Amino acid sequence: MARYNFGAGIGDYVVTPTDGLWGVGSNATVTFWSDPDGGTQYTDLLTAGGAAVSEITADEYGHLPTFQGPDSVTGMWAESGGTSRSWIEARGLTGGGEGGGGGGGYTAITRIVASATAPADVRAAAQYVCDGVADHVQIQQALDDARDNGGGIVQLTVGEYNLAQQLSIEGTDDVDVEIGISLLGQGARATMLNTTTGMTAAVHLTKVVRVHLEDFGITIDGATHGITSATTNGASSGHRSFWNSTFRNLQVNGPWDGGHSGWAINMGSPFRSVFENIEIGGVGNGLRFYSEHADFNPGDCTVERVFVESVGNNMTLYKIESTTDDGVMNQLEFEMCEGIANGTGCTGIHLTGTGGWGTSHTHWRGINMEQVDKIVHVEYGSSSTFRLNHVNLRDGASGLTAFTFGANAFNNTVLHTGLLYVTDDCKVYSDANTIEPASPNRILDSRVYRDTSSISVGGQLNPAGTTVRRGIIGNTPLNTPKGAPPGVYFPEGWGKYWFAARNKAAAGTGLARIITVGGSATLGYFASNPRTKSWPGLVGAALQSSYGDGGSGFHGVNLSQTLTDATPYAAWLTAGAAVGQTGTWTQGGSTYGPGATYLYSDVAGSTLTFKARGTTVKIFTVTGSGTRPAMLYSIDGAADVSVAQPSGTAAIQTTTVTGLSDTTHTVVIKVGTATTGQYLSVCGVSGERSSGVVLHNVALAGSTSTRWGTEASASLNAVWNGGSAFPVDLATYSTAPNDASANVAADTWLTNVLGWIRAVRSAGGASTGTDIIVALPHIGTHEGTNNKYWEYSRLIRPLADVYGFALVNWWTLGRNSWDAWNTAGYWGSSTTPGAVGTDGVHMSDAGFQYMADTLIPYLAA
What's the CA gap between 469 and 461, in Å, rounded? Predict the structure, then answer.
């Protein structure tokens, strides 16, 4: 018997939530258990010095010190007063080597199997040496040894192994087993298992608890499947197959024949298993997960970065099914998976059952599909969510259906499907039922574009009880990228910085920051609420609903009474969007800080009132020459807090308040004791959380490109609007109508735009990087007859290629016509914000929704 070392690893920390944030559990007491819920407490522990203890105390940083577990125990469930337990594994034997870390040091046995093509010294040192003919005999013996000795690693060397019979890995149904069985190669293309004619599979798994397959490839020219599995008869509670198992860096190479499958996996009842970096190429059907047990619940099983290439007609790339009456195959998580079909009549994702409930509560995120005739087919199943990336239906085929739902499919949701592409008639949605389910299926934010000159859409786009929102059908000119309507250009590779930040936000590990720079059409004139119903507000809300709410973002003095029209201001103040103010406030003469403007006052007691949602509030003021009164701020009616405003060179001072409750706060800024000429200068307030999407709309009504384009750091201008002082992951520039109406020369406008772009790119180079969109609002009737706007449009398009930014021109999307959008009800009313009117350049709520709909699929792709 032997004890194993625990703790002192990079992940061995206790963390606890405090006021919505996570912090270390300083001096936390940790107990250890045999089960994630209930079970027996392990009390036979030893400190690093050999003292007997029943629990372990973390240090002041929340880090667990080295300690020894009970005899022969290599993994335990740790508890520290929370609602759940976490798994901790041993580092190695006490008094011996630490092994390879991550549990590698405590493996019971390791069997090296050398291929016929391995170097001579490797073959001489191996326990099992293959001859290149019937290599399955030696590999199987090593696997059986591992099973008979309680677990171990079978390590295959570089080379090819020829199998005359399938390899069988038999684990156990004992979920408390500490050491599993591992079959490891040297890489998916470095270690290859070759099958021969008549074999069912290369590898067959039974009783899969702590089984690990990693770093090898399979050629199935002679076999029907690459990997199969089965569960044996067991207790009424179901079999424990695929418990705490991993399958990584595997490759299955099939023949170009529709009669073969990559994986056919009988999942049993798995728990905490991972399928990652798997490539299945050239097979018929791709990946099939199925269960023969009722009430199947995988529990924390994930499938990540799997690529399937299917060959043959009427094949399925990913098929998930229950094969018993009243069985349920649910709660599988699929992320960043891809598939391509080379035959006709193929389906990307098929969820089904056999007379029972089928599949439910599966989640698909970031999925790419190409050349399929049907993207999602839910035959039996409910409550699954599909978040798809850019998906291509088969070119040239007619009557294709993107999404279908059968008689027993209900409450499924398809979100943000980006830019489906076909050349003939396409059904976005087809329902096989004559009666809609009580809980309807939903297709939200899905778009289909085609090259055809006419649009003929089949299928039920909105049957009774089923939601289809923004299922937009449009045409694409042949000389533009597939999926892009006229006026929209997103270059290849655009978005890598934004998508990376967005995915971190979705995982709860950081903020994805957006800034929108522009004039009144970006600020939200004449929306019912410029904070929520402007196109930036709608874009931000859509992204926050999918990837997490990072807070309300910047609320600037650009929505104050001083800087807005009187009629909409009153409505906006009632809606909670405008900045309340008392006393005397005047607009500053410099383009300083976020929003490129500020209000100043030397009247003691004058106030500005902002709204900010999140756990952190940031207040931006301008400091500089002359004696300045203190800023007083109050949050949610609390006592005033005084913050000194330094004199000297002009600068932006950020006052940050953390640890707030996670709600919407009322922030009142007040001028402290002052005399004439002693000014408090305020830019605005931002509300933020620790993770999620946060959008800062810094637009200012009436602004031209000159206001935003000074890139020098000392100017306190562009650097505070997406540049180094206020960096973001996605920056959108939308200023041009006021330049056009003021007859600003095209070269001058372009120079100002490039100044802002250079400032943003400089910030990106110094941090993680920034993606840029230049968005030109519809000019409406604002320009008059000077024709400057078309010059701006002509000059900016080539720059998109040079600088790699995306370009959206709503003037083009509006057919260069005020009348076109007037017919659609997109123009607003200055007297009734949000309503349809006849304004010359500002939108109604419907118009802003259209503008947001243009951008959302690209940002949520």
Answer: 9
